[in-house]
Design brief:
1 helix; mainly alpha; 54 residues
Length: 54
């Protein structure tokens, strides 16, 4: 079973990541079979440079 979510705006808050993950998972719980492996991946990360950190 695979679920995904694409965000079109940058996410800077860990709480938003958690909210999206739990929303994707709760749609499939409770499951009929035990879960053997659960993974979360994040793609297309970009580094931003702030003027005060140089």
């Amino acid at each position: 079973m695979t679920r995904s979510h694409s965000a079109f705006l940058p996410m800077r808050d860990k709480t938003l990541f958690e909210k999206i993950i739990f929303e994707l998972l709760e749609k499939k719980f409770p499951t009929h079979k035990p879960i053997r492996l659960l993974g979360v991946s994040i793609h297309t990360l970009q580094v931003t440079h702030h003027a005060d950190s140089q």
